[in-house]
Amino acid sequence: MRDHPHGAGRAAEPPLPAIWTGRATNRVQWLLSAAGAACVALGVVLAVVSNWTSGTAPLLMSVVGCVTVGLLIMYGTLAFVHVAVTVDHESLEVRCGHMGLPRRRIPLTQVVGADFVPKVTPRQWGGWGYRWRPEMGTAVVVRRGEGMALTLGDGRTFTVTVDDAATAVRVIRARLAPPTEP
Q1: Residues in Cβ contact with 101 at an 8 Å cutoff, skipping those fewer than 6 apart
Q2: How far, in Å, CA of 168 to CA of 173, rounded?
Q3: Partners of residue 93 on adjacent β-strands
Q4: pLDDT over 70 at 23, yes or no
Q5: In the chain, what is the straight-line distance between the N-terminal and C-terminal CA atoms, in Å?
Q6: Whole-structure pTM over 0.85, yes or no?
């Protein structure tokens, strides 16, 4: 019989990074943005080649309506095609879409807990995007799958879907733990 040192046989966990970054992407929303682009194109075609006999007011309303709806659809979908999450020593920052808007920065001093959520779905939150539900808190949902839920000091919850959320939770928990005295 061999004598094994305490903890032998367990896989050593990799060291935590100084700055953790993660992303989540939803390629389906590119198809939805194509519908928005089609609405904008329809508005442009109506403005350029239309010869409506019913007057300029209906034509102007149709053109403005198509372009506006198309731009809203494109922004609403492209803003949530992906999310980027960064955890450093001071805060967690969430940036959505290519422009990084909307953006949310949560100082770690306001976080009292972090939990791994194995399955977050748009159905739980009422769709994709930046969501708020009174009984559940706030969330950024860009796809279904794993995510993390932060419990804030004021009792609110913030959830975000991101790849490798388990590592993010480990990093946040390590930063929340009080320093051990020697």
Answers
A1: 79, 95
A2: 9
A3: 86, 105
A4: yes
A5: 35
A6: no
